[in-house]
Amino acid sequence: MTKLRYASSLVLLGLSNTLLACETSPDSEPQPDQIGIDADGIAEVEQLADAAIAAGIPGLSVAIMRDGQTVTIARGAADLQNGSAVTAQHRFRMGSIAKSFVASMILQLVDEGALGLDDSLERWLPGMLPASSTVTIEQLLRQESGIFDHANDERHLAPYIQGDMEFFWEPAELVALSNAHPPDFEPGERWAYSNTNYLLLGMIVEKLEGESLANVAQRRIASPVGLTETTMEIDSDMEEPFARGYLVGLGPELVDTTRISSSAVFGHGNLVSTPLDIARFYRALARGEVVSEALLPSMVSLDPHVPSEYAMGLYRFDEFFRCGTFVGHDGQTPGYDNIGYTTLDGRRQVVVSVSSSTTDDKAGEPAAHEAFYQLVMAAGCR
Fold it and tell me: Are 7 and 331 in contact (CB under 8 A)?
């Protein structure tokens, strides 16, 4: 069986209902050269959304923001059994988009002087990973730690593959999976995606704040930004309404993985939200409303010493989208695939969530994934 993975990178290629809503955000500011999406652009994105459903994706939701103008498009079924339709209010498991939230919380704490980017892992979690004790906070943020990814240990997903979707992992138990393997390289030597980096950062946030990561995310990000549909879950539950998630490729039938426990992705994938809320988050982030203007440039900048497209909790693509430099994150978890990005100037946001994924982090079979890709490109720049 192909090993299930939680988001590793943005893959560059590889029942119908419509909801269309347009509104102007109350905090939008007039621009001399408006870049709002026009009727032709909306029609094109709608057609591509239809094509994605026709290609086999069960349900999808799109949020586009341009200078504060908001367009949402939803297609397909939220539940294949009862045929209920996806709407813009349906929540999805957002996977590794959670990393952007955790990185933001860490940088807020850095800005407040509670910890430093050069602080060692050992200082804040003594004895947790003896072989990686010298790893710094910044190396964790930039995925330069060399720490073995616990998601690559076969024991990580074994309970869920066996059908126990509510199996609960304690964060320290996940770290123990990484501890069973030697580091992949010396800290700072190169770049490699490891979910364990953000598991550890989530644990550090809890230690410094003295409360759950979920509560800190609500207090520091969701409430100030006005994200009313965003939570960091710890178990199998989600608040309704939510789109059910389906795993593709384990046999002829889709496998309903909706209730896979968020405990398995603590700190790096346990975010539940709507595309519109995620678009609002990335817009606020780019506008300096989440991370201070003093630290935001570092957050969105790449390390010149370690070639990669990963900044701090954000991928940065200078050429992938044809209409400018975008930062953000993709997020896969069994049954869900998401992409959320913003331009550096905060004028464009695009978030697309679909309720299917394969065992190798794609939105579905090749035709479905290609349709997903085309939809993202049009929603981002049309």
Answer: yes
- The type of residue at 83 is G
pLDDT in tens, 55-83: 999 999 999 999 989 999 999 999 999 99
What value, to the nearest 5°, has the Cα angle with vertex 39 and ends 34 and 67?
Answer: 25
User: CB-based contacts of 126: which residues, under 8 Å, 6+ apart?
Assistant: none
- CA angle, 142 then 218 then 126, to 5°: 50
Q: How far apart are CA 327 and CA 69, in angstroms?
A: 19
Q: Which domains does the chain have, with CATH numbers?
A: 19-381 (3.40.710.10)
User: What is the rounded CA–CA span in Å between residue 67 and residue 348?
Assistant: 7
Q: Are strands 19-24 and 69-76 parallel, antiparallel or unpaired?
A: antiparallel
SS3 call for 252 = coil
Which amino acid, one-letter code, is at 362? Answer: K
Structure tokens at 11: 């893959």
Considering just the CA atoms, what is the radius of gyration of the chain in Å? 19
Q: pTM of the prediction?
A: 0.92
Could you tell me the end-to-end alpha-carbon distance of the chain, in angstroms, rounded to an integer?
39
Give per-residue pLDDT as tens, 182-207.
999 999 999 999 999 999 999 999 99
Measured distance CA(77)–CA(59) in Å, rounded: 5
- CA atoms within 13 A of residue 150's CA, in its CB half-sphere: 27
Pairing of the two strands 356-358 and 246-248: parallel
- Determine the residue type at 102: V
Contact yes or no for 118/29 (Cβ under 8 A): no
Report the alpha-carbon angle 364-155-243, nearest 5.
Answer: 35
Q: What digits encode the pLDDT tens for the residues 86-135?
A: 999 999 999 999 999 999 999 999 999 999 999 999 999 999 999 999 99
Comparing CA positions, the residue from 49, 102, 95 lying closest to residue 71 is 49
